[in-house]
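Write out a record, fold above all:
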Amino acid sequence: MSEHPNNGATNRIFSAVLDPIDRSSEVLFGLIMVTTFTNSLSVAVAGRGDVRAMLIGALGCNLAWGIIDAVMFFMSSMAEKKLAERTIEQVR
């Protein structure tokens, strides 16, 4: 079986992706946020504008959470990388 020339690069990309437990918990947090918005809407008296405002609010909340979460993930990844580099330098 021949090995793909970019196999090392592909492994590095997939190692940076969240593990299945983190992914499923992020999806669950998103569903909880959307459920919070949708449960705050009274179905009996909600008009078309209310539903639209609720959907925009839910999408905006999830988008903001996704951006914040991505920035925090990036910052923690960079901190871990820098800590590993310093540890290697100190061992040398």
